Give the backbone structure.
Amino acid sequence: MVALKKAAFDAQAFLASAGLGRRIVQLAPKETFFSQGDPADSIFYLQKGRAKVKIVSQGGKEATITLLSAGDFVGEEALAALSGSRLTTAIAVTACTALKITRDEMIRVVHDEHDFSDLFLRFLLARSMRIQADLVDQLFNSSEKRLARILLLMAEFGEPGALEPLIPKISQETLAEMIGTTRSRVSFFMNRFRKLGFIEYDGRIRVHKSLLNVILHDHLPDDSAEKPSISGIREE
Amino acid sequence: MHPRLNSLSRLSYISGLLPEPFRASTGAKQPLPGHQHSREETALHEGNLLTTKKNKKFDPTTFLANPGLGRIIVELKPKQAFFCQGDAADSVFYLQKGRARVTVVSKNGKEATITLLSASDFVGEESLATIQGLRMATASAVSSCIALKISRSEMIRVMHDEPAFADIFFKFLLARSIRTQADLVDQLFNSSEKRLARILLLMAEFNKPGGPETYIPPITQETLADMIGTTRSRVSFFMNRFRKLGFISYNGRIQVHKSLLNVVLLDQLPDHNAQKPSLPIP
C-alpha cells in the first residue's frame, strides 16, 4: 500500500477559509461575537475589521479591556480547561469578517499542526504580555499617563516607519472605559494634549511622537501659569 | 509573520517564536514503498539504532518532576530571585513546591507585585520569544521554593515534540492570561478596599477545589499595598475594618472567613462615611 502524501498544512490558508468545524461570519458594527454569560464553545479569528472586548461589572460599570484588529484571535478562553461561560463580551466596532472555529476543531488543529500551534502560541504570549503591561500601567501610572500610553499604542509608535500616526476612530467613552476614568477627564486630558501640540484633532486624532513626553516625564509644561502641573497622582 | 502580531509583540518587546527546523516528531524513517513498518519494526530493521528511549511514552508529569537534558532543579530560600528585571530571558521555570511572586519596578523606583505563583505554575514564559529578550519583571520566592529550570531551547523542543506537554503549557498560558485580565478589571472597577478583599480571598484559595486554606501565607502589608496599588497605611486601615467586622482574624497569621466573600461578591461594604456598618454579618 502506498502511503498517501499529505498536503502541506498552511496556517494562513486555514485561517482564511471555511471548512470542517469552521465557518465565516460577518458582523455589522455593534453586533456581538459573543456576550458575557454565553457558553464558551468557539474561538474567533478576526479576518477583517476592528472589534473590542468589554466587561460589565455587577454594578453595571463597563470597562473595555482589549481592542482587536485583523489577525487577532478572540474568545480564546473557550480553550481553557475549566471554561464554561464567556467572561467578556466581544463587539464589532467596524463591519467585521471573522472565522468562527469550534472548540474541538481548534484543539485538534493545535494538536495536529506545528505551524498552527506556533502561530497560536505566539499570539497567546503576546496577548498575555500585553495584558500584564496594561496591569502594570494601572498600578503605576496616573490616568493622564494611561491615556497617553493607550493613544501611543494605538498609533503603534513601537513600529519603525509607522505610516499611521492617525489612530482608528474611538470614542472618548471607550477610552475612559479602558483606562478606568470618566469621559470628562478624557476630554480634559485630550484638550491639554492638543494645546501642548502632542495631538491634532480634525475628526480623527493624529498623534505626535512628542506625546511620549507625557509618559517619560513626571511634570508637563503648563499651558497656563495659574494651573498646577499634573504629577503622577493616581485617582481612585 | 502577520503584521498585526508584529506590532503587538514589538510593543511588548517580543516578536514571536522562531520556527525550529522541522523535525519529524516520531523520529521514524519513511517506510519503504509497498511496505509499512511500525516504529518497533523500524528499530529492528535499522539494527537497533533507535534507542528504546525514543519509543517510551512521554509523560509530562515525569518530565516536569525530574532534571534531565536542558533542565535542572533549583532550590530557593525566601526572597531569593529566580530572575531579575533586565536579565537575559533564557529559561522558563516550573514551580514544583513553594510560593513565589512576580514584581515590577518602575523608573521611579516604585514596586508593584503583579502575580502570585504557587506549585504547578510556570514563570518566565516570555523567554519563548523569537529574539531572546530581557526579563520585564522579577520573580522571587515568597516561601522556600523548589523549581525546575528549563532552558529556552529545551522548552521550545519539547513544545514541538510533545503535544501532551504543549497542552499543559497552553492551558497554563490561557489561565494566566485570564487571571491577569481579571486583575486588570479589578483595578478598573474596584476600590482599593475591595481589591484588598479579593487578594486576601485569592491567597486563602477560596477559588480552588478542596476547601479553602483560610490561613494565608505570611505577607507584609507593604506587599499587599504594592499588589493593589495603594499605601501601606490604607492597607492597615482596611485590615482593621475587616477585623472589626469579623471578616478576618489575626493571631500571628491572617485567617480569612467566608464572610469576606460577601464583600467581593455582593458589593457589601459599609460606606466610608456611614456612621454604622450597613451590612448584615452572616
Q: What stands out?
A: Residues 163-189 of chain B form the longest helix (27 residues). Chain B touches chain A through 61 residues (CB under 8 Å). The longest strand of chain B covers residues 91-97. The radius of gyration of chain B is 24 Å.
